[in-house]
Design goal:
The protein has helices spanning 3-26, 31-36, 43-54, 57-70, 76-91, 93-98, 104-112, 115-148, 152-203, 298-312, 317-323, 329-347, 350-360, 363-367, 373-381, 384-421, 426-445, 453-477, 483-505, 512-519, 522-539, 548-556, and strands at 221-225, 229-233, 237-245, 248-257, 260-264, 268-272, 280-281. The protein is α+β, with helices and mostly antiparallel strands. The protein folds into two domains: 3-205 and 312-451, Sodium/glucose cotransporter, CATH 1.20.1730; 216-277, no CATH class. A four-stranded antiparallel beta sheet has the order 1-6-3-4. β3 and β4 form a beta hairpin. It is globular, with a radius of gyration of 24 Å. The relative contact order is 0.19.
């Protein structure tokens, strides 16, 4: 990718973000403006904003990368991301708006009249928010590294600075306009290039990708390995190498890599012939990546993914907070319906990018940069000035992806920190809370930077599904929920899922069923959360809050009839 064009594209997006955000800054004056845009955002604008912040780096970069690495099974990610809004529409959107809350902890306290439930919900909101921020910062680092060669941590730092300024300056009113603009920018950044990419693919006689076995090099391809690694070769392949293979120094030598394991030295270049299978690198000790190990128990992992994405959307703090900005419950439902159409339009493009990456960028499997597939395709298929311009457009879209989602997440985490850690201290301390809201995941990203972005987002969905899904569904639809029941469900469901994904990210479980259960906890942690809330609530029926009848009426009756 041409660095000059790419930097220009990213800089343009940052500048446009600042200018659009300034529009919101001019009209942000009150606490309600900062937290929920004074609950006056129209359904269409809100749907654009919801879609803008929901389509994160995992959607823009990660899904195509997983399709490249693991095939069509990874289409469950966009299906789950979209279908989660159907669940939210059916069970949560309108009642949650009618609750009058600012945040998920606000809803928990209003429904259950318990400070303890509020505090636990607050901890989980912060945990989910920080988990979700990690892949946004990784996506930023990856994009900046490809554009400039800068270290990965620098991209995350740049995003942290921009997001801090945007959120602290204008709050929800400001980022609503920013995120609405960024949805259309992201859609354009994928839609325009894919037209040219498909034309180039058709001109190349429309080859079809291989899905039932390892990807193959469609063309003669040179791959440069920057770090030492061990690869596994399934079929003997003739390569030309410069560097070191199995301890032997080579300079433009032709040799055959036999079936089995081979050690590739750092800074080694290899040229593979057309039709050769891509050797896959073995997982490094302590690596956090889920992808190489998903195949051990693939069916279980698929169910874990489906449950997490279908049920986790309703509890994502940056998504839920947007429904508080609607004028009423009916507007919240309309927002959700529009979001379904907007997400569907966006996700139709992901299989195209994944398939093209499987054909024209299989070398990224060897280098470990599969998340970069979307960024690399314009240069691979088109090249020249046209490829550089389209690459700059895609890079700008990627920048919009992690900026918009990071803004929404920072907003929701800062809101909880400002209300529950720095209570009743006004907008000045909301602005102060923005700093730790983004600084903690920025620092953590320098330690656990190896997790693929879509996998990392999947972990955040699992925690959300195990904690806030039971709390919202039972809190909205069951009068019998009690504070002790909610505490038990949040601690056992959400707490166990948070522990499991933390262990996964830090590399605490490396293989076998232990790793699978911890990496995809939703299969067992969601039932644990629901079961604990129901059983403990039944055992503590006398603890049903006194104002439950009035609260349930407010949640379910249309505004003006309570």
């Amino acid at each position: 990718m041409n660095q000059t064009y790419g930097i220009a594209g990213v800089s343009a997006v940052v500048l446009a973000t600042a200018l659009v955000g300034a529009l919101g800054l001019r009209i942000s004056r009150t606490t309600s403006d900062f937290y929920v845009a004074s609950r006056t955002v129209a359904p269409r604008l809100n749907a654009f904003a919801v879609s803008g912040e929901y389509l994160s780096a995992a959607s823009f970069l990660g899904i195509a990368g997983l399709l490249l690495a693991q095939g069509v099974d990874m289409l469950w990610f966009p299906i789950g991301y979209t279908a989660g809004f159907l669940v939210l529409l059916a069970f949560v959107a309108a009642p949650l708006r009618r609750s009058g809350a600012y945040t998920l902890p606000d809803f928990a306290e209003a429904r259950l009249e318990s400070r303890a439930v509020r505090r636990i919900a607050g901890v989980l909101v912060v945990g989910v928010g920080w988990l979700y921020l990690l892949p946004q910062l990784r996506g930023a680092g990856l994009t900046l590294r490809l554009l400039t060669g800068a270290p990965g941590w620098l991209g995350g730092l740049v995003v942290a600075v921009v997001v801090t300024a945007a959120v602290a300056a204008g709050g929800m009113r400001s980022i609503t306009f920013v995120q609405a603009f960024q949805y259309w920018l992201k859609l354009t950044a994928l839609l325009v290039p894919v037209v040219f990419l498909l034309a180039a693919w058709h001109a190349d006689r429309a080859p079809l990708p291989v899905w039932d076995q390892r990807p193959v090099f469609h063309r003669s391809t040179e791959v440069r390995v920057d770090r030492p690694m061990t690869v596994t070769v399934e079929e003997p392949v003739r390569v030309t190498a410069t560097g070191s293979i199995d301890g032997h120094p080579l300079r433009g030598a032709a040799l055959t890599l036999t079936e089995g394991r081979h050690h590739i030295g750092a800074h080694t270049g290899l040229r593979f012939p057309p039709g050769a299978q891509v050797p896959l690198p073995e997982r490094e000790t302590g690596s956090a990546s889920l992808a190489p190990r998903r195949g051990e128990h693939g069916l279980y992992a698929t169910y874990g993914l489906i449950l997490a994405t279908f049920l986790g959307t309703m509890g994502l703090p940056h998504v839920v907070v947007r429904f508080y900005t609607n004028p009423d419950g009916r507007a919240a439902r309309r927002t959700t319906v529009i979001v379904l159409g907007l997400l569907g339009a966006f996700y139709l493009l992901m299989p195209l990018y994944g398939s093209l990456a499987r054909l024209y960028a299989p070398d990224l499997l060897l280098t470990g940069d599969t998340d970069a597939a979307v960024l690399m395709l314009p240069q691979r298929l088109i090249g020249g000035v046209g490829g550089d311009l389209l690459g700059a457009l895609v890079a700008g879209g990627a920048c919009a992806a992690f900026l918009s989602t990071a803004s929404g997440l920072t907003m929701s985490v800062a809101g909880v920190l400002a209300q529950d850690v720095l209570p009743a201290l006004g907008l000045r301390h909301f602005r102060l809370a923005v700093v730790p809201a983004i600084a903690v995941p920025t620092a953590a990203g320098t330690v656990v930077g190896g997790l693929p972005v879509a996998d990392a987002v999947g972990l955040a969905f699992a925690v959300s599904a195990s904690s806030f899904c039971p709390l919202l569904v039972l809190g909205i639809w069951w009068r019998g929920l009690t504070p002790p029941g909610a505490v038990a469900g949040l601690l056992l469901g959400g707490g166990s899922a948070l522990t499991a994904v933390t262990t996964t990210i830090t590399g605490g479980a490396s293989s076998g069923w232990t790793h699978t259960l911890l990496a995809w906890p939703a299969v067992w942690s969601v039932p644990v959360g629901f079961t604990a809330m129901i059983l403990v609530s039944l055992a503590t029926r006398h603890r049903v809050p006194a104002g439950t009848a009035a609260t349930m009426a407010r949640l379910h009756l249309p505004e003006g009839r309570v």
